[in-house]
Amino acid sequence: MLLSIAMIVKNEEKNIERCLKALRQLDGKLSYEIVVVDTGSNDATVDIVKKYTDRVYEHKWNNDFADMRNKSIRYCRGKWILVLDADEVLENPDEVVKFFDKDGESSKCNCAVIQFKNVLSANEDNVLLGSLIRLFKNKDEFCYQGRVHEQPKIISPIGYTNIALRHYGYSRESYELMEYKYERNLKLLLKDLEEGKDPIYTYFQLAQTYAMANKHNEGLDAIKNAYRIAKTKDISRYLYILHFYARDMLGRGNFEKVIELSEEALKYTDEHLDFYYLALRSYKSLNKFEKEEEYIKRYLKLYKKIKDGYIVKDISVNCFSFANYDDVLVYGVMNAYNQKKYEKIVEAFNEITKEADKEKLIEVFFYALMKMNRFDDIKKHFKKKKITDSDITNILNVLNRVCVEEVDRKSSEIAENMMGIDKKIDLYIENRYLSNQVSNLDEVNFDGFTEWKAEIAKDAYCKNETFIERLKCICGSDLKAYVSSMTENFKCLENLCRYSKDNFLTTDLDELNILTNIEEVLLTSKSIEKDEYNELTQRALINKINYIKCIYNLAVINEKNAKSILCAHDYVVYDIFEAIKIYGDDKLKYIRKLKAALNISPEYSKMINFFLKKVDDTEISDDMRNEKQKLLNITEEYIGNNQIANAQEIINELMKIFKFDVDILSYNGVLNYIIQNYDESLINLGMADILLSGNFDTVYNIACVMEASGRKNNAVSYYEKAYNLCLDDNMKKGIIDVINALKEV
């Protein structure tokens, strides 16, 4: 028997089969046996093991790892022993076979180092590299020592191999296993410490155990104790102490201490990748870019050496930064950028292999090329790929920056160098840098907001108000982003306010959708004059309530569920509307409700305060309601006698008291219609309509105002609604005549 594979296990049903199945790759390549000592499993571990070997032995756990290892070794019959744990998987069986070749390493040594890849997460590439002596000649004097993290008794000479084990025990996904190991190891280590067993190594293992449980302060105390004792001896023998301590300091942002510890270690070794990585990360964080560059170079040189098969002789220090190679390449690009080494940026960028990393750094790459006038290289970059909106964003971001920075060259000259890559880029450059009239926007798909599209949209809308039609089919968040950008331009802001006014009370759902999104943004503008803003606030509320009524079933929305159903803006509007509905019955409740809304949504304070202004806490009495009806009758008489000014005076006084009364709003709408104040008329009639839906008089009056103001399509829609609500056949006939006449026009 050439090889015995020795294991001690307990409750490893989640891991053991993965481990044993991998060993099957040795079948037919060398003679081996599997020896398993079970220390008290109460799950399916033993049953699984017996599918792979009959050499299973049971021994009660005695809190001593070394003793259990030694028991498993005594059962081994092979000339060599490979020690495995259940959460480890043999990666390259051919390397084991190679070790035992006629002229292999086994003929030259008594024990051998194998490589470890400790998997740290669900991402199999996220590994901590290490080396351990796990292969031994089966000699009588060979044994293990130590209760926790047991160590083999080394019998020289030592061989070095590329045999690799993938270890899953550190994976954070194995939470229950981690918890069990922590409790078990902590107890045993504290006992070792109490007995004074190798305090440096015990404190180190204690620090690792605390770190595994995220008890970082306790871990720091332990590694400090290990470091303090090690400093009194030969620190070069304890590089693993410096390594752990430096990693802890990096996590805490103590970069000066990381550098001190890393450079102390590098006095004694040049084969540990992590010390270069720890130093470069720290110099990077301290903006010491020349020193960072030095350590990046040293890291990359050693990384390639290890990747090519170099075996690190010092097995005491694990290596976590081998998996950070791609990060270091990224750091190299940014280091060159920070030092304005443009050629170096391009060189370092081209070393990167991960497309995701290249995408993150593409603007830095373009920036370096533009600064060196290598515009053709950017064009070549896009000959091999289809250009996307994201690519255009990257190019134009860099172009705009370079144009701002350059003093000796005109922006137009720089920008012209970038023409010819894509028609959309050409269009942007012509618009912004060459002051050319942009007429053909068909090349631009405005889905997906970008700043460069926003600039084109802003310019187009300034010159042609019908451009807004291009934005009707895009999603609400993109639309609001475009509108927000447009409000920065006074001409665009003027056009948007006019659009809000001209399309108020539209019955077309698509139109209503774009309108409410536009008005939501306009309500946040600080550049709209007060009276116009007040009108906008009322229009926005009425339009939004009409939109909500179209989209939602208001019968199932109430104060309890509204916040979870509606978006923030819609919820505020709904809350205001609910307050408006109770104004006539309980003015104090109206005030309290709006003040509560103000506390919950202070970002909408301007809108909410509009509905709070000029409201006193005087309750409306029954006598006041009776008097209101008398005054409305008088108003009716005044209107019939064409005494419009007198009627308006009464309504204005009633509005101060009753504010949101449907009848008063309707009269106010009619009076403003008579005096051809159509905007004010529609606001009053629109408010009356949302408070009392399905009222024929209100809907008919809106239709009349729409017709008078030249909004014929909207007039037809409201006449059709009025027709459906009308109960008078003669009146219905008259409505049909009006509709037909409008359609003919």
The backbone outline, from C-alpha atoms, is: elongated
Helix content: 55-70%
Number of strands: 10
Going by helix content, strand content and strand pairing, the class is alpha/beta
How far the N terminus sits from the C terminus, by CA atoms, comes to 103 Å
Stretches where pLDDT falls below 50 for ≥5 residues? Answer: none
Strand order across the largest sheet: 3-2-1-4-7-6-10-5
Strand content: 5-15%
On the 0 to 100 scale, the average pLDDT is 92
Largest sheet: 8 strands, mixed
Radius of gyration equals: 40 Å
Count of individual helical segments: 34
Offer a few descriptive terms:
eight-stranded mixed β-sheet, 745 residues, alpha/beta, two-stranded antiparallel ribbon, Spore Coat Polysaccharide Biosynthesis Protein SpsA, Chain A, 8% strand, 58% helix, Serine Threonine Protein Phosphatase 5, Tetratricopeptide repeat
